[in-house]
Design a protein that fits this description.
Belongs to the UPF0246 family. By secondary structure, the protein is an alpha/beta fold. It is built from nine helices and ten strands. Strands 1, 3, 4, 6, 7, 8, 9 and 10 form an eight-stranded mixed beta sheet that branches. Strands 2-5 form a two-stranded antiparallel ribbon. The longest helix has 17 residues.
Length: 254
């Protein structure tokens, strides 16, 4: 069983608790350079337009691309550097050695720049969503560029274990999964989190994002290997709700 999770736009490279954990080198560094080369051709105005961001953010992102190979650029484990809501839920800072090892084998962070990251691969500051129209030479977009490598890697991880992908990524990043490139009969289980408010069940983005990280944490902390065990997820009062669930879409409510 493998887990896929989105990266976060917000990042923090200030070292703190958990940074003593040994980090690893990202798997597809040579291909990341190809993406970086395409990004370096962009002006600040291009970055603002293609990434749909304010000029102040565009200036910062432009700086990330241009200075990426500088020796002074900070590096940090991906799961610690990403500072979004989902990563507050994951809270990888307190993982022990066994949990780190399990996370490295089972948690996959999909990235526009790195393709796929293990949680303790060391990364540098960047911003690059998958859906942005960045075109490395010979490819129509980042999905086209990364699909073979990412799905081949996941296929190797799924070999010899239960062929299930727990999808707690957003649609933008889960769109990187191509069933034809994964082992035959691989299940992709989409997980949905709902809130009970005023007698209705609603998906609240901020709570759903945190719950995605909490779900990954639950699997890692309990070192689960069978998909049915995931239904026991009960962090922050969530519980599995079979009435709204299907075989490959699981709903948890609170």
């Amino acid at each position: 069983m493998q887990i896929i999770l989105s990266p976060a736009k917000r990042m923090n490279f200030d070292l703190q608790e958990g940074d003593s954990i040994e980090t690893t080198v990202p798997l597809f560094q040579a291909k990341s350079i190809e993406v970086l080369d395409a990004c370096r051709t962009l002006s600040e105005a291009d970055v603002a337009e293609k990434m749909k961001v304010h000029r102040n953010i565009a200036r910062q992102v432009y700086g990330y691309f241009q200075s990426f190979n500088s020796r002074t650029v900070p590096q940090r484990a991906a799961a610690l550097a990403y500072d979004g809501i989902a990563y507050k839920g994951l809270n990888a800072h307190d993982f022990n050695d066994d949990e780190v090892a399990f996370a490295q084998r089972h948690l996959n962070i999909i990235s526009g720049l790195y393709g796929v990251l293990r949680p303790f691969d060391r990364i540098k500051p960047y911003r690059l969503e998958f859906s942005r129209k960045i075109q490395p030479d010979g490819y129509k977009d980042l999905y086209d560029f990364w699909k073979e490598d990412v799905n081949r890697y996941l296929s190797k991880k799924l070999a010899g274990e239960e062929r299930v992908v727990i999808n707690v990524a957003s649609k933008e990043y889960s769109g990187m999964l191509y069933r034809k490139l994964l082992p035959e009969n691989t299940r992709i289980v989409e997980v949905v989190f709902l809130q009970q408010e005023n007698g209705e069940l609603r998906q609240v983005v901020v709570h759903s994002k945190k719950a995605r990280g909490l779900m990954a944490r639950f699997i890692i902390k309990n070192r689960l290997k069978l998909v049915e065990e995931v239904k026991a997820f009960d962090y922050e009062n969530y519980f599995f709700y079979p009435q709204l669930s299907t075989e490959d879409k699981w709903v948890f409510i609170r």
